[in-house]
Amino acid sequence: MEFHILPIVTFLMLGVAASAALSPEFYWKSVLPTTPMPKAITDLLHPDWKEEKDGSADVGNGVNVGVEKGNQGQGGGTDVNVGGGNGGVNVHAGPKGKPVHVGVGPHSPFDYTYGASETQLRDDPNLVLFFLEKNLHHGTKLDLLFSQTSNAEATFLPRPLADSIPFSSNKVNDILHRFSIKAWSDEAQVVKNTISECERPIIKGEEKRCVTSLESMVDFATSKLGNNVGAISTNVKKESKWQHYKIAAGVKKLGEKSVVCHKEKYPYAVFYCHKSDSSKAYSVPLEGADGSRVKAVAVCHTDTSNWNPKHLAFQVLKVQPGTVPICHFLPQGHVVFVPK
């Protein structure tokens, strides 16, 4: 689903002084002068600042995964079936057999207080990739589908403008009115879902903030990690059909501290940023059967004991909370900050 409100946002932008001091790009460079801005960020700047689209791709609208235990590929790699896109995906969560159709409904899979229902596990196509850390190694095989990034991305607003717009469940009617969204529409429900997720209590060991501007994202990340940080995101050079990928040599741990910012569905760019005391970030090179290469980012959670026992990761991977480290790839458009 896309919000068709870019003309409205452009109009609102005219009310903000165009000085560099209010530019999200300028703020990034002033606070993080030695940190290159990842494409996931530059793609969401004001259209006048955007790089021309180059066929980059998302990891679907989300991705899911299951490990086929005992099915070893050539070279000892572990086979993993992954998929994404509008039609939902078949996933194996154990030995070969009947695949499981996995979905997460209207809730973000990165909200670990949320439990996926039977219906959502069966029917919802919005999927995200989860896998076990023991499979994060050279030779693991995956079936992946990368879909084209939409050209109608919600863009960042300068912080003064973003701060002037309500972002609260008790101001929903005002928000919908500002963006000419009908109260009964699917777009209105998306707005409500995102705000509800942002207001949900945190789990033990987590710090979170939903940021409504790039400046706020930078402030949150640096408040947790300091100013000497790197920022990375999954990078896909071109769209490809569903095909076999394998993890190439060169998996690299980026750090045992990180702030992960997940892109939310909203009329303008909003990210769910959180820091966990028990997570690690990795850079993971992937090689496709057609020769394409993906520079993916994975985050692994070493302590899941406080997650909802019905979270989709446990249901897909058939494991219990707190028993094994669980990882997920980040869809393109999401960002990880790590100390340098």
TrEMBL record:
<feature type="domain" description="BURP">
    <location>
        <begin position="130"/>
        <end position="340"/>
    </location>
</feature>
<dbReference type="InterPro" id="IPR044816">
    <property type="entry name" value="BURP"/>
</dbReference>
<dbReference type="InterPro" id="IPR004873">
    <property type="entry name" value="BURP_dom"/>
</dbReference>
<dbReference type="Pfam" id="PF03181">
    <property type="entry name" value="BURP"/>
</dbReference>
<feature type="signal peptide">
    <location>
        <begin position="1"/>
        <end position="21"/>
    </location>
</feature>
<keyword id="KW-0732">Signal</keyword>
<protein>
    <recommendedName>
        <fullName>BURP domain-containing protein</fullName>
    </recommendedName>
</protein>
